[in-house]
Amino acid sequence: MKNIVLFNSGTFWIMFILFIALYALVCKRKTQMMLYVAAFGLLFYYLNNGFMFCLLLFTAFYDFIIARKIYKSSDPKKKKLWLTLSICLSLSILCYFKYTNFFISMLSSNFAPLDIFLPAGISFYTFQTISYAVDVYKGKVEPARSFLQYLFYISFFPLILAGPIMRAGKFFAQIKDNKVIDKTMIYGGLWLIITGLLKKAVFADYIAQYNNWVFDAPLNYSGFEGLMAILGYTAQIYCDFSGYSDISIGMASIMGFDLGVNFRLPYQSVNLTEFWRRWHISLSSWMRDYIYIPLGGNRKSKFRMYVNNMITMLIAGLWHGASWQFIYWGGMHGVGLIVHKLNKPWLDKIPDTWTVKAVSTVLTFVFVAFLWIFFRASTMENALDLIKHTVSDFDIAYIVPFFKARTMWCVFIILIYLLHGLRETFLVKVKMAFISSHWTVKALIFLIIVQLIIQFDSGEIQPFIYYSF
């Protein structure tokens, strides 16, 4: 089914403008607001997934019922049984749609893949349903007061396709009568939408064209061109997914909801542990709270901590996609985290100087960028071909002709990494300056971004990378 309402499409923004106009009339009346937003969310999901929106309704229904059973049960064994049922149902549905062909391929090399349509967003809302059931079981959150409230949470359209993964407790607390939405939330949300569109529709989509050519046929390009594609994809995936998160969080902010922060300049990290505290924060914190800690976390032996770390990262890799490349990507991140923890005692003794931070940041970036190869490559063979060819056929003499041939691509790459190197405090000041600026300044900035999107339009709407997860 052709996607017609992605966040970077004109169709969606026409829908959103019409939606927000009526939302302003109902946002202070809780029941009407939830009904209206849930209906829009289901329509949005239907336009992207067809009648798979019925699966979303089914998931919301059983999860709502079971959570109430968990909450009302006074027998610990029954509570645990209901929780197990909820988790098994959610994981069974996810595994069928996302991993059936992968598991069959593990059993037989000669098989015809089943024609299974993967509903967009199923990985994200499944994790939300699991966290909801677990939090009700642990008493961290009371169950939704009505099915409408829970459906509103599960079908909230800024989140439904690619997160961030929102915890029910934080979300339910923001559903109020007489909701106050101040100018800071509205204009702060508009700023996030503008920066998100710049990242995705201008930077990511433009540099993706060259990246795709090299990753699809790495042997057709020189080693230098291969290295540029690796650096290009490292920039692309950040701009693509953090851009989506900015748009999602921005829309929610305009509606009066705080979804938190999902990216904090991750390539500034000085080690891999810090990287995972800055990259896709909602997923990494979910993995920590619902997999790593329940496995034992760091409460037991060091060996057990390392095993728990590796299991968590392997699951993170498999969550991203049903292929050996993703498992390898997750496993190697697990290895990297273990190596960092093993060496932390003597690493902490090294003086925290600017030089040390710079070297640490570069080493972390190189490790992360290298593993993005396996994340992006269509097959393990393609990934290995790109690595081997980049090393064996590398020649610095290509730099000048490459820049001449792909000047705008190089300019965008330089801009992305320069902007990524700015301090968070400076970016916050820029955001606050935008919020306090005159409406004509806001309009001018918005029009400039729209013009840039039109200027660098690739000809068709490019899906977000995480849309397929």
Describe the structure in your own words.
- Helix content is 72%, strand content 0%.
- It has helices spanning 10-26, 30-49, 53-72, 76-107, 122-138, 147-154, 157-160, 168-172, 183-216, 223-254, 272-278, 281-292, 302-320, 324-347, 354-376, 380-392, 399-405, 407-420, 424-436, 439-455.
- The protein is globular.
Low-confidence stretches: none
- Strand content is under 5%
Radius of gyration: 23 Å
Instruction: Output mean pLDDT.
Output: 90
**Continuous helix count:** 20
Approximate helicity band: over 70%
Shape: globular
Largest sheet: none
Helix and strand arrangement:
Elements: H1 10-26, H2 30-49, H3 53-72, H4 76-107, H5 122-138, H6 147-154, H7 157-160, H8 168-172, H9 183-216, H10 223-254, H11 272-278, H12 281-292, H13 302-320, H14 324-347, H15 354-376, H16 380-392, H17 399-405, H18 407-420, H19 424-436, H20 439-455
Helix pairs in contact: 2-6, 3-4, 3-5, 3-6, 4-5, 9-10, 9-18, 9-19, 9-20, 10-15, 10-16, 12-13, 13-14, 14-15, 17-18
Entry keywords:
469 residues, mainly alpha, 0% strand, globular
Give a short synopsis of this structure:
With 469 residues, the chain is mainly α.
